[in-house]
Target: Inositol/phosphatidylinositol phosphatase
Amino acid sequence: MSGVLPVYRDRAEVEQRGLQDRIRSLPQQRQAQDFTREERWVQLELPFYHDQFTKVDDISICVTTFNVGCKKPPADIGPLVRKEYNGKPVDIIVVGFQEVDMSASAMWKVETETAIPWVTGLAAELDADKYYPQATAATSQSPQTPAASSNSSQISFYHAGVADNALGMSNGGKYVMLCCKQLVGLLLCAFVRRPLVEFVSDVQVASTATGALGSVGNKGGVALSMTLHMTKFCFITAHLAAGQNHVNKRNEDIHTILTTTDFNAAKRAAITSQHVYDADDIPPVKFPKDHDIIIVAGDLNYRVDMPYETAIRLAAPGGGANCNVEALLREDQLIREMKSQHSPWRGFVDLIPTFPPSYRYDMGTCTYDTSEKKRVPSFTDRILHWSRKKSLGDRITVGVLTSLQEVMSSDHKPVQLLGTVPVRVSVPEKRDAVVTSLREKCVTLGLDKLAAAQTTLSESQLDFGIQEFHHCRAQRSLFLNNKGECTASFRIFRQQNDASQGMWLRVTPQTTNVLPGESAEISVEVVLERVSLRWMKMWMPYRGQASVRIKSNLIVHVLGGPVHVVECATIVHPSVFGNSLDNIIRLESNSCLDAYSQSTPPDVSTTVSKPRLPKELWYLCDAIFKRGPKTPGLFTEAGAPDVCASIMSFLDRNNKPLPDDYPVDAIATCLLTFLVSLQETVVPAPLYQSALSAIRTGGKVPLFFVQQQLSPLHANVFLYVMSLMNYLLRPAFTSANELTPQTVAQMMSQTLMPRPSEDGVSHAADAGGHAAVAAAGSSSAAASDTRTSQAPTNHLAAITPQQLRHVIQQDHDDAVKFMLYFLTPPPSNMSS
Model:
């Protein structure tokens, strides 16, 4: 799971690994030399002083974002890519598309055939190579060596049927395509001018879905990571939450994209999927802000807050020179959010529009929306940039920033940037001078003094106060100050000193380097989710324990220097979210907070049967049943985070139906969150393969599996949820809610029976789960865990990574078939 800290190990082991990391960072040809101790120190220090031996050049760039509205490419795709700037060829061209495919069947997929015409059209327009380096997160390759991709989400020209050369040789085009990565409706294409290819390295792509469950790809981001000369670039195309009032959800979406898009995630998964691997080969996390420059271009969906009639009057029919852009921007949501100190856009520069609103037009015209919905003209399509250092950001220039009014194939207008960005290029003479200076420093001060890092940390304790599953994300900052004469390299670990093992803490960055006299900011954030709440199933109701105080230590280990310990503490309130079904059903008629506060359970007559379903689940399903069957985008459009938090808080504090003023999309999001956050899945992990065997056998075996192998409580939950899904799939509703059996089956396979290997759970946390409650004063016995980690089976241990991917895909497909079995109306499968 991205962002989870490694466990702290022996100091000598950490020192050795840190030294190996820094040695590996040396150029390959220099590693072979027999360095003296002093020269080795010089070579290790040299990369940290790159600002002193590089010059900054400017390269031209064209960035376009276009929400295509599920339409095919226009006859003339040329306006989307500008090939010249100031009379010279543009060096880098990046195009980000949104809504390439928004069909219901595509929501749970990664790539579809609809992207191919856009990819081939751009390649033809730019005379780009039809074979290009496959920029996968699992393998970083230089664009000089085209290779076949092992990433199924990477669109291949050969697969698209447009390859001229079966051997995959370059056709010598003017541009080389670095990537064309699709995530359902999102598509990112990037090209570099051929003479620059030899200076490009570390090409990787990654994607992050932010739709329902964080896995529906109708919203999210696709990102490209690349290094040009000595500058690291990250290009992101994003499609954030829609809706006039969903500003908080848009902010959460971009926060998720910027903080969880890990370019090394697939590479780590590929390595760890092997039966035997070297832990030193596992790469660290690599997020967007680990780059020098980030450029975000997409349909960010921030709106203009004013009445429709007023906005139409200011925009002027058809936009153009009469548009009062300045007046519209005064009520622009993004500009307002950029001013907030807590904005996820902190540090970004918004390229403020100077053109008419790019949204929303009547299709095929330059006339703003005349439909019944009367959508307010807004600057939804934006381009922003971020730089690690101000000196680089100041060098970014904007030559042209415009909307392409001549493109009328969509209800959006493309927005295009043409300008320059800086790149650092090594200067041999300056590099030699820095080497000489470091050698002199080594002679003057002595190696022993130089090699000893001297650092201080701003805080030794962090208190995050009271946190709940639906009210967390508190943040604190630490500052590591380098007081010594050499670069301080540090790593942050979590210490296994408590039941939670620090899994509730997210730290950014986990490793970095600090030059002498400088400091580094370390952000620590609270994240309460199923993974970090594994111990909650041991925390039972009716023990008089309304809260638990957690303390975890972070270890800031400085290579060749001190080890700093930071004690982090928080108080956690109980919730039905992130809890176990066994605990939730024990609440009976009391609310969650009341049940955990009381010391004895209610006096229930033995003649009264216990609830067959958690009442909180019933309240969620009942609200959807009564008010939501015809809700557009049901389960595919996530509810607003603040509204979802309010619903979760209501369920934890009350035993009564949800108020009618809660929107159905937020209730549906909470239902999925309830199911996916259970400490043991509805179909427990140990029974996952049995469920797949049942569907492969066929007949009534899947029904027998649910009735006979699942516990009564789990079987009741499974059948109740699937009954609701069958109701929502009635023909009278599907024309409005746009659900299909395939979409529902995909969704339910990920919520009710996710593949155990995707659980993302460190089961070592279970060992101390009971201790967390005992330390807080509980004497309850540990409950059994139905989600026990399974040891790898022998038939998986010996297969290749490619075979393993095939097995995983087959399991996914069969899990969907298992759900489809129970979505056959009427439920004839269940007849006796």
